[in-house]
Amino acid sequence: PHSLAILQKLAKEKELKRKLARIAKNEFIEVKLARIEVLISRSGYTGEDIGYELYLHPGDAPLIWNLLLKEGKEFGIKPAGLGARDSTRIEAGLPLYEHELAGKYCITPTEAGYGAFVKLHKPYFIGKKRLLERQAQRKMEVIRFKMKSKGIRMVKSEDPIVDEKGQCMGRVTSSALVEGIQVGLAYVDKNFAEIVRPLTIAHSW
Question: Between the N and C ends of the chain, which has fewer C-beta atoms within 10 Å?
Answer without folding.
Answer: C
